[in-house]
Specification:
The complex is a heterodimer.
Chain A (H helix, E strand, L loop, with lengths): L1 E10 L2 E11 L4 E5 L6 H8 L7 E6 L10 H4 E4 L11 H12 L4 H9 L15 H13 L5 E5 L7 H16 L3 E6 L2 H4 L5 E6 L2 E7 H4 L5 E7 L2 H11 L2 E4 L6 E5 L2 H11 L3 E6 L4 H10 L6
Parallel strand pairs in A: 3-7, 3-8, 5-6, 6-7
Antiparallel strand pairs in A: 1-2, 1-4, 8-9, 10-12, 10-13, 11-12
Chain B lengths: L1 H12 L3 H31 L4 H15 L2 H5 L2 H16 L3 H7 L3 H37 L9 H27 L3 H26 L10 H9 L2 H6 L14 H24 L5
Helix pairs in contact in B: 1-7, 2-3, 2-7, 5-7, 5-8, 5-9, 7-8, 8-10, 8-12, 10-12
Classes of the chains: A alpha/beta, B mainly alpha.
Chain lengths: ~300, ~280
Amino acid sequence: MIQVSHLSKKFGTLTAVDDLTFEVQPGRVTGFLGPNGAGKTTTLRIGLDLVRADSGTVTFDGRHYHQLPKPMSHVGAALEATGFHPGRSARDHLLTMAPQAGVPDQRCDEVLELVGLKEAARKRVKGFSMGMRGRLSLAATLLADPQILLLDEPTNGLDPEGIAWMRGLLRHLADEGRTILISSHLLSEVQQTVDDVIIIGHGRLLHASPLADLARLTRQRTWVTPIDPKALLDLARQMNWTLERTPDPSTAQIVGPTPAEIGHACFAAGVELRQLAPQSQGLEDTFLALTHGQEAIR
Amino acid sequence: MIAVITAEFRKFFTTRMWWVMLLITVGYSGLMAAGFALLFDFAVDEMMAGSPDGAAVLNEVLYPLIYPMGAMTGFIFPVLVGAMSVTGEFRHQTITGTFLAEPRRWRSLTAKLIASLPLGLIYGAATTLACVGCGGGLMKLLGYSAGLDKADTWEVIGRSVWTLVLWTVVGVGFGLLLKNQVASIVVVLAFTQLVEPLLQMIPLLTGVAMPFLSYLPMAAGNAVAGGNALSALGDDSGGNSIIVLLSAPVGSAVLLAYGLVFAAIGYFVNWRRDVS
């Protein structure tokens, strides 16, 4: 389990993280979401003791990163697809980590095979694509078989096939009881992968829940095309509905009530409708609406 | 700690830098020593013609100058290697991985310094071997003694290796102090090729002894590598030494202090900093 508790960090006058508190549960894949600059990477870097917090703590199963005896065997972290010496081969990159990970050298070959880099193992990283670098980062995190994985934008540079593969691997690792946190600035990138979401903006927590609960924040929108627009207007005023214009002058959008509630009220008031259709709103819209707002919604 | 040091060795030997720099060091030092041997032969022919005794005396004086040639002129390469073992980590952002593997920063820094000792030994041994091979070999070919039968010569050889070990530590320390790779290379070259040589000229030009100059890094390094043979060259006609070199142990201590003080400052200024 990862616990972030009242974490704050300023860079000069810029507040990167602002009294952030959340928990990441084992056995689940958790999406750590927010627009670029929301403070995701800073939070991860503080957790890994790369950046000092102004106040607050991040612990992994109750311990700070620097208190873990062999940190790489507890927490596997991949921060962006950089941090490789261009002249070092993929295998050599892992070999430089093996002593401190406490694993024998052949484990390097195993993880390279696992991430699909067996053929490129002895090639220098200089010639690697973004996707291959991402795979190598992932291989490095898996080297010592840690219980906790922190992956920063892991799908960056992966093709659709790669994303599907990553999804399957993370699911498998979570099912083994591991704690997995993956950051992304797009919900849609990880929507099919994550069980829980933690959404931050301007360094503050906006929302934390299972993915399914995010849907409940969605405000229902319904397309309505009345025979008599004036009758609908009267009814809307009476029912206190919010009516919005649409490009089609004969059609309006009602925000708030469900289509069933609208249908019932119209029937009772004798307002005949030509069309009554729920607008399917994606979670991404909910996510964007959340992160554009400044106020925390829980 | 052993794992951290092992990782440092692996980092060092898995890029091309180490052997490219080793080839340069060995080639440069070998050439310098060979050049000096040729110069010696030329000097004997020109100045000591018909005086075999004079040649023999000069021969004696010269081993201590030929064999530490690498330590006295080629030392910048181990310095650069040591510095780049640190600056390269910042340049390629591998420092993130280094700190993830060992979040206790003082331990990762200590490992870098300890790892630099055997690496310095490799450069020192190869460089000195090149000087003995090229310089001494050429002396032998030209019909002089290579002096390898003398204990003094072996002391000179040992000092040469030791000097280069110390220089490697200075390099690591300097890399910690100035973590920008390009800047650190430029400063090392500028200081060793221009700044200190110019400063050391001042007493020679003015005739005023300036004892503090012997505590500058290259003077300290030359004290360890060349010792008395160099001091003798700086004597004025009255036998008063204008270039005063430290004793070898003091020179070693001064050079080591440069490395460790640089490293200590670098620890607080760069190494402990946030990595983002």
